[in-house]
Amino acid sequence: MILEERPDGPGAGEESGRKGGDPREQSRRARIHQQISKELRMRAGAENLYRATSNNRVRETVALELSYVNSNLQLLKEELAGLGGGADVGPPEGEGVTVPMIPLGLKETKELDWATPLRELISEHFGEDGASYEAEMRELEDLRQTMRSPSRDEAGLQVLAAYYDQLCFLDARFFSPSRGLELLFHWYDSLTGVPAQQRALAFEKGSVLFNIGALHTQIGACQDRSSAEGANSAIEAFQKAAGTFRLLRESFSHAPSPDMSAASLSTLEQLLAAQAQECVFQGLSLPDSTTPQDSRAQLCLAQEAAQVAAEYRLVCQAMAQPPVRDYVPASWTTLVYVKAEHFRALAHYHAAVALCDSSAVEEGLPEYEQVVQPPTPLELQDPVLPQQLEERRKLAKAHLKQAVLGQEEALRLHARCRVQRKVDLLQAVVTQALARSLAKYSELEREDDFFEAAQAPEIQPKTQQKPEARMPSLPQGRATDIFYRVGPLPVFSVKNRWRLAGPVHVARGEHGFGFTLRGDSPVLIAAVTAGGQAEAAGLKEGDYIVSVNGQPCKWWRHAEVVAQLRGVGEAGVSLQVVSPLPGPEPRSGVSPGGGEQGPWGWPHPAPRRSSDLHVPGFGASRPASSPRPHPQGWVVSRTRASCWPRIPPAFPLPRWPVWATTRWPAHRGTAGQLS
Questions:
Q1: Which segment of 145-149, 292-296, 658-662 scores lowest on mean pLDDT?
Q2: Cβ distance 440 to 352 under 8 Å?
Q3: Bridge partners (DSSP) listed for residue 596
Q4: Which end of the chain is less packed: N or C, by CB atoms within 10 Å?
């Protein structure tokens, strides 16, 4: 059964509920909402048919329909966001028109009930009243709801990163190889719109991480690249998006949806690298009063344009390979071909402008031989810059001819592309470039030219700045666990089993309470004196103190617990403790030391579980090593916490880094002696 979604639901943007303003804008916004609602109903019906049928031909037809619906939804939401941001949707004018970028649409998801399974798990495993955590559950569900429709700015990225951090905490606390929350995570494919659902928490993590990368592409595409600051911001956004998809590609195998497969993520990396390289070219081609646009600068721009064209040709090859070609939108493939031809033509245009420069004629242009491509085996000699003015004019005409042919080919390819936007900026940009090339060609044309221009050599790709993929902007400060009250993660998680005991009344004896305390958060009963008050009350070595006189003390430090015990009188103290129990038996089908296929089809080395997204800082346990003295006078007991070394941490874990460290004070006196 498909849950009904409101028109102003996920992805509709925060501006959908804005009141007032231009009546025409309100009317357009209402019309877009109606269209979004219609597309959502069509998607719901197609999704029901896709799940119900077993006929492969019908499934292929429905999948194609879902891809069209998905494209329409993304365009409508992009138009709605433009209305909210006051974007002008009129036709572009002037020379400031820039080539449009290809942003990725966000993966959409349905509402998820975290509260019910969390309430049951807290009551069953942690021995607490699950209803007392209603505020934390509402905060988690509100955060997920906000994450479904983030704004296209840094605030939206922070919302996605905050939810991703909470998923890491939830994975460490409430998921183990032997049990989970039995939740069904439902996400739509960003490229095809086909639904996918999994019980693995890794699917939720990966989808959120994908949306972080997709949102970076949208932020980069929205930048005003007519200024140096906007071009640099776009470069940085595309670099971070490429780094996010690389992180996903290196972390996932056998992903449940096509957009998160290794092949598609690799193609997206190449696409984003090409778009970042395009922004580098646009930044260098901006008019700058401090840098004269002489012939050498024009040759530099020619090589930069050739580099962009080479990057897009690589993207074309990647998109033509199976299985990527089966689910990458056809419009993307065509637009990438158009961009490759357009920037190849721009390379020839800037080379022609450099040859026509009068200062270059007088001073010479030795860089030209280094700019053109090395000869092919069929060519007998290297291309040489002509020294005579007439020969140089003919060579410039040859480059302009290649520029005109390339831009005409780009327009021809573009005419075959199904573009659903009313305003097509790419066509306007290519048309402007073609008109500029034709005007320059007319300047060089003479009535007595009876011979065709020679074949112009290709331009050698070269760049002054090669954008590299950067890691996503995940929070670097300490994240706050929503379920902080449950207790410190190394102890209070479903990976550990314990028995809650108490409250236990312990009277003060002649030699104190009769136990030794060690460690922080929570404080551990390291030893119990035989025949003492603690032993008589039923306390055992290895128990953790979680409450002192009714006050929760899971996060108290050693000194705080000792100070509280010192302050009690002869009547004694009421303690509540948890006693660790032996760990559960390994799950059937998973043997320690061997790797097997997870229940959702994701391979994993045991004892990792298939629902993990290789988040560092958490994982399978390892037997504790013997304590060894710390240089600062502490005794350190090392127990390995879960660690996936392949990914840098999403957030630092100051209390339990890669090796969880429990520090005991070197002084080992009893609480009674300390008093």
A1: 658-662
A2: yes
A3: 604
A4: N
